[in-house]
Amino acid sequence: MQRGFQLGLLLLVVQLFQEGLGNIPAVTLAVLGFNVYLYMFPAAPLLKACVSLQHVYKYKEWRRLFLSPLHHVDDWHLYFNMVSLLWKGIKLEPSLGAAWFLYLLSVFFLLTGLVYLLLQALLTKLTEDSDPLLGFIDVFSHSNECAVGFSGVLFALKVVSNHYNPGGVTYVLNIRVSNRFASWVELVLIYLINPGTSLVGHLAGILVGLLYTVGPLKTIMETCAEFVSSDVTIPRPSSYHSSSGASGYSGTRRGNSEEPRHAEDSTTDHTSDYTESYIAGLTEEEQIELAVRKSLNQRGKREK
């Protein structure tokens, strides 16, 4: 695939070497590498990979459930999602164990897409009912969006991470938030500041995470694992170091399912005034803030 200069991809490589490849857990590194590979050599064009109720349910294109999380709109979309995966994997994978972390990623990978479709079906029903109380949300837009990106899985992982560290705090755009509410605050703030991201996709991730932490999903997964192998070790993670990062610049992007969203039309990240070393050295919440600033600057330029 022909691409121009990929600053986001370059910064991701810098970030990986800053962390040290030997310090990155195996499953996390493998999943990250697979996402990068599919960005460089996509399995399908974005319009054929994005997931929506119309394409999956109406046209029976079920493969989109597997393609959508692994495809990204542009290099910045990939960068923020993969850096978020990197930090979450470094925290969660050693605590849960590589096998369980891979199992968890696989289940979240599939369930976020299914929950996303259920939410779109609900929004479609609300659109038909024309509820005036929902005027503050563009329900029709969300019920017809077609999304790609790994951020649904990342939001689910964030819920799990915060569940095991309930007393910690997260800074979302410099706002100090308890880990218990961080995912919800980030969901709302990102939607208000950057409506180009998929509110439904992020919400689906949060709901899947809650199904695991306070719902029946973990028990079901344990039962299935024990059925497959009686020697399986169920992880009992203890509280680890305080989680102070957000879920990354939530990367699920949405677009009209009928028209392609070009990279320049998608809300991307970082201003050109910052050097590569400066960007790569930022914390996750600082990167989110910088990404939002870039998004607002771009929006202002388009309006002029």
From TrEMBL:
Residues 255-273 have a biased composition (Basic and acidic residues). It is a multi-pass membrane protein. The chain crosses the membrane at residues 100-123, 188-212. Residues 60-214 form the Peptidase S54 rhomboid domain. Pfam families: Rhomboid. Residues 238-251 have a biased composition (Low complexity). Residues 236-278 are annotated as: Disordered. Its main location: membrane. Residues 1-22 form the signal peptide. The keyword NAD does not apply. One of its GO terms (cellular component) is membrane. GO terms for molecular function: serine-type endopeptidase activity. Keywords: Membrane, Signal, Transmembrane, Transmembrane helix. InterPro entries: Peptidase_S54_rhomboid_dom, Rhomboid-like_sf. It is found in: Membrane. PANTHER family: RHOMBOID-RELATED PROTEIN, RHOMBOID-RELATED PROTEIN 4. This is Rhomboid domain containing 1.
